[in-house]
Amino acid sequence: MEENERKWPPDLPDPKTLYADFYNKIHDLLYNIVCASCGCIGHDRSDFTLVSVLDERLSCLKVEPRSLVPYHFSCGVSALDQQNVMIDPLGIQREDSDLHLDSNSNVWLCNTCHPSIMLARRPPESLANFRWVGPVPDELKDLTWIEELLIARAHVVGRVVWLQARNQASYFGIKGHIILLPQDTTLLLDLLPMMPESLPDVVRVVWTGKSATDQDRLRSQFTVRRDMVYNALQWLCLHNEDYQRVTIDHDEFARWPPVFVATTLLDSIGRSRDSIDEDISRSGFATEDIDTADHDGDLPLTTSAILDTSEVSVSPDIATLRRLAELKNEITVNVVTGSTPLTERDNPSYFTSAFPTTFPWGTGKHIHLERDGKLSLNTWIKLMLRHSSR
User: What is the distance between the alpha carbons of residues 383 and 377, in angstroms, rounded to a whole number?
Assistant: First the structure.
């Protein structure tokens, strides 16, 4: 101890060496690797193993009959495509000089999937194990958040969107976050689209700050395009397994103009004149500062928290919800009367029906009776969040 004290502080390493070590370690972790089996992204090579595409044990990732999958899932490697093996094409090892894929290719397998596949067993996490999601068609691309709400069969969360101008002279710096509230819905909707007048049942928008809201400047963020909604809903009814029994309400579409503003939602905007309390209430939330002078485009909406409205675990941040309730005499969050509310634990279509642009084909459910091995809800969510295409 005395010797160490005499030598304290130690000599600093050479700055060039220190920088080189830092640079190399950071770049090692910047390398994106995708598991061909589960499609999850990783960054550490030690968490993955390379396996030849000719390894016969990859046949455990076959999808038979192929008619189960409603879209084409070939990866470009003939040795795998001939067997109907489903993998994530991004999991194929590629070099910059590779112009095509052949039988000399290798695939990355993560440390979770690799042991099972080496035993010729299909991992519960694999895409081939009824976890395929599929590409997003053009009809579902570029839908606004309001347009997606109008065609969703379930509204499992209520959105409370907070908007705030960066300064009184500019609305281009509007920032905000979303609080998610569980809702007690009992049935999935079979008649769509939802009436725009019902949007305040699932969404509440609150304007914070001393500046007054200028609805004319916000109208573009509450605009609905009839043809976009109709084409998306029509595609879902034809291709999404959750929408096979949905009836399109043509009378509802007939009363919509080609482009209109959801005035019911716009007029229901709450007002909090002082944003200081609201900013304080954010402490502890996982938020990102997205205020930049060069920001351009749609309003940035970020999920900042999932709050336990049943107060099973009491959080001081729950005061945010209580203050929100004071802004309006009544807050309705799509509560449908019934004795047996839908829950995510036992309804396979719970998530896929609520987020049609994330699950365009209705596949990849967190519950599937034919899946080899079960996935817990937490594991399924983690797999979805780490999926290469999300």
Answer: 10
Q: How far apart are CA 144 and CA 232, in angstroms?
A: 12
Are 2 and 25 part of one and the same domain?
Answer: yes
Is residue 235 over pLDDT 80?
yes
**In sequence order, what are the beta bridge partners of 164?**
175, 208
Largest alpha-carbon pair distance within the chain?
87
Q: Are residues 233 and 167 in the same domain?
A: yes
Q: Does the predicted model carry a pTM greater than 0.90?
A: no
CA distance 142 to 152: 15
- Tell me the residue range of the domain where 100 lies: 1-134+369-390
Helical residues (DSSP H) of the chain, grouped into ranges = 2-6, 15-29, 78-81, 114-118, 145-151, 215-218, 226-239, 250-254, 263-267, 276-281, 319-327, 377-385
Statement to judge: residues 328 and 248 lie in one domain: yes
Tell me, what's the pLDDT at 111? 96
Per the listing, tokens 């993560």 go with 110
Count of domains forming the chain: 2
Question: Model confidence over 265-290: pLDDT tens digits?
Answer: 888 887 765 555 545 444 443 344 44
pLDDT band, very low/low/confident/very high, at 178 (cuts 50, 70, 90)? low
Task: Note whether 145 and 126 are same-domain residues.
Answer: no
Count of residues in the chain: 390
Q: Are residues 247 and 378 in the same domain?
A: no
Residues 111, 181, single domain; the answer is: no
pLDDT, tens digit, for every residue of 206-229?
777 666 777 777 788 889 999 999
